[in-house]
Amino acid sequence: MLGLENNTMREPSVTHNTFVIERSYAATPERIFAFFADPAKKRRWLGGEAEGFAIESFAPNFQVDSFERWAFRFKGGELIKNDVCYQDIVPERRIVFVYTMTFGDKRVSSSQTTVELIPTASGTNLVHTEQGAFFDGVDSAQGREEGTRGLLEQLAKELERAS
Amino acid sequence: MLGLENNTMREPSVTHNTFVIERSYAATPERIFAFFADPAKKRRWLGGEAEGFAIESFAPNFQVDSFERWAFRFKGGELIKNDVCYQDIVPERRIVFVYTMTFGDKRVSSSQTTVELIPTASGTNLVHTEQGAFFDGVDSAQGREEGTRGLLEQLAKELERAS
How many other C-beta atoms lie within 10 A of the C-beta of residue B51? Predict the structure, then answer.
């Protein structure tokens, strides 16, 4: 009986992880929101600086109930797709979206993300909450948080450049 | 300055919550998966028994990257919509989807949900992991977990009825 259990039991194939990053910017919520809403700003922010990444396509669609699709390659490797679906948008205040990553033809992760923009006396507090599901151990939660910190740093540089 | 901070500061408008429910069934993963994949079975399971709920419409679409839409009313009240978007489907094994609830014209919550089906010697362990975001305090995380337990109990009844 124990042998049978061992033969037929399977471990869950998905790991879950939530992280929260807070970042202050010396910019209004309006200016920050534009980097999510404006395709040219967004493309420059998210696709501009990361070394080795090349955007193959970007189909913007910043609307609730709609898909926005990215495809890129890292150092000429297999195609990486990022499909974004927006659940809620409150202009200059809140964006909720899910993004699903695909390596080649294999879906590797999906994350529900909440971005809140909270005005302060000196600018904006951005609160990024990401609720991730990682499939079959291909993608990793740890790298995701690190990568997100990098993107939020990059946003500060973009805001300086544009100001 | 402190007064200015108080006037302009705003609290985050979204609360986040993750819960996990495990439930064993005396049924194969194949039979359980059918209640997610087959529109008639799904409609009977999710819309059949809850007292006071009336389904106004159900547009099934059990495919990755697609929307499946429900609309219903509770005791003749305002229209409640549930928009489901599938992120990953591995037949008889794993389903990852996001569902967004709308009361009238107000989006109130969005939850990324992972359902895993793990075969055992006596049937299946179902592991339901839900990563929720609740907007503006309208919907509640507590009710969601309770409601999900009810649906998983109801699934056991549907499986008995169909066996």
Answer: 6
Give the residues across from A5 on adjacent strands.
Answer: none
- Supply the DSSP symbol for A82: E
CB atoms within 10 A of CB A14: 21
A129 vs B contacts (CB less than 8 Å): 14, 16, 133
How far apart CA A88 and CA A110 sit, in angstroms, is 17
The residue ranges of every structural domain in chain A are 13-162
Predicted TM-score (pTM) of the model is 0.92
| ipTM computed for the complex | 0.90
Give residue B34's identity as a one-letter amino acid code. A
CATH, domain range B13-162: 3.30.530.20
d(CA B80, CA A53): 42
The answer to whether residues B22 and B125 touch, using CB atoms and an 8 Å cutoff, is: yes
Q: pLDDT tens digit string along A113-138?
A: 999 999 999 999 999 999 999 999 88
Residues linked to residue B130 through DSSP beta bridges, in sequence order: B19, B113
Question: A159 vs chain B: nearest CA distance in angstroms?
Answer: 21
The answer to whether the beta carbons of residues B41 and B48 sit under 8 Å apart is no
Q: Assign A74 a pLDDT band (cuts: 50, 70, 90).
A: confident
